[in-house]
Design brief:
325 residues, alpha+beta, 39% helix, single chain, globular
Length: 325
């Protein structure tokens, strides 16, 4: 790492994320967020999922990247902190910290297109000049449409974790089926190889870069974002699942608790959403079958899909009843 002071490049409920300047290849995630969140668990799950992706990429191409986990720094590691504590702003004390490959933000042309298209005009110049908005990562929400709103209604706009809903992706002529396939592959890998529930994991579209130890897939490309990759991050809420009925129930719960990255079953009457779910469903079952082969677990993917579709119908019915008063 360089000798410059650290700069905050993101914040979440688990903690804050820091880097050296704007081009450093490492990111440091501090355990200074909400209570009950564990960076130790994040580190363990991160390694399991990263290693699982390495295993499956030896068999087929998976169009996603997991940042390489590098080190877990304990709050008690006085030697490490004695050299680096002063690089954080005043008031930031020692805490557990996870070091991994930094996800490279989208480049300036993509950032400017997002601002020009979606940012309120009165905020445009401010956002383009703001250093923090150079840390641009896009969340692909294939499971949610905006309702009647075409520009941000808030007077606070940020490119950090910018939500790109499925209707926006369609307007921008981005291939939603291509992203759906990658997300389905990711979920199959996490459930059947890593054997975790994927609870609260995040997916972002960011720049494509050479990764230290993983074989990189070809990047995605769109006219709007240019060349980019799908990255998976934030594993602190993940937990192991048993390969049985109880594990399937845990996976179903995690699916619907998460942000709407995945297409959702039976949630809207929009034909495009139904087609996208069918594509996701079929790809998930195909990839799961390839990963499990003739294993005694080969019935579990279909069981999971059936439970997801049943739960989707229940949620849609509840939503319909609430809308009718």
């Amino acid at each position: 790492m360089s000798e410059t002071n650290f700069r905050c490049i993101g914040k979440g409920f688990c903690g804050s994320v820091w880097a050296n300047g704007t081009v450093d290849e490492y990111a440091m995630k501090r355990e200074d967020g909400g209570p009950g969140r564990s960076l130790r668990n994040d580190w363990e799950m991160h390694n399991i999922i990263s290693n699982s992706l390495k295993i499956v990429t030896s068999q087929k191409t998976f169009h996603m990247i997991v940042p390489q986990p590098h080190a877990f720094i304990s709050i008690e590691d006085d030697e490490w902190w004695s050299e680096r504590a002063s690089k954080f702003p005043p008031g930031f004390s020692q805490c557990n910290t996870l070091i991994s490959t930094r996800i490279p933000p989208l480049p300036a042309p993509a950032r400017e297109r997002i601002i020009d298209r979606f940012c309120p005009s009165e905020l445009s110049a401010k956002i383009k000049a703001n250093l923090g908005d150079k840390d641009c990562l896009v969340r692909p929400y294939l499971g949610r449409r905006r309702v009647g709103q075409r520009t941000s209604r808030f007077q606070a706009f940020t490119l950090r974790n910018f939500p790109l809903h499925v209707d926006q992706m369609e307007e921008l002529e981005m291939d939603t089926f291509q992203y759906s396939a990658a997300l389905a592959d990711a979920l199959a890998m996490m459930h059947w190889v890593a054997q975790v529930d994927a609870n609260d994991v995040e997916f972002v579209l960011a720049s494509y870069s050479h990764h230290n130890e993983n074989v990189l897939p070809a990047p995605f490309h769109s006219e709007f974002l240019g060349s980019h990759a799908l990255w998976i991050l934030d594993f602190d809420c993940c937990h192991p699942i048993s390969m049985d009925d109880a594990g399937i129930s845990q996976a179903v719960s995690a699916f619907f608790k998460n942000d709407p990255f995945f297409p959702r079953p039976n949630m809207t009457a929009d034909l495009r959403d139904q087609q996208l779910w069918t594509h996701f469903r079929n790809r998930f079952l195909k990839t799961s079958a390839e990963l499990l082969g003739e294993s005694s677990l080969k019935h579990l993917p279909q069981l999971l899909i059936d439970r997801l579709e049943d739960r989707g119908k229940q949620l849609a019915l509840q939503k319909s009843r609430l809308s009718k008063g």
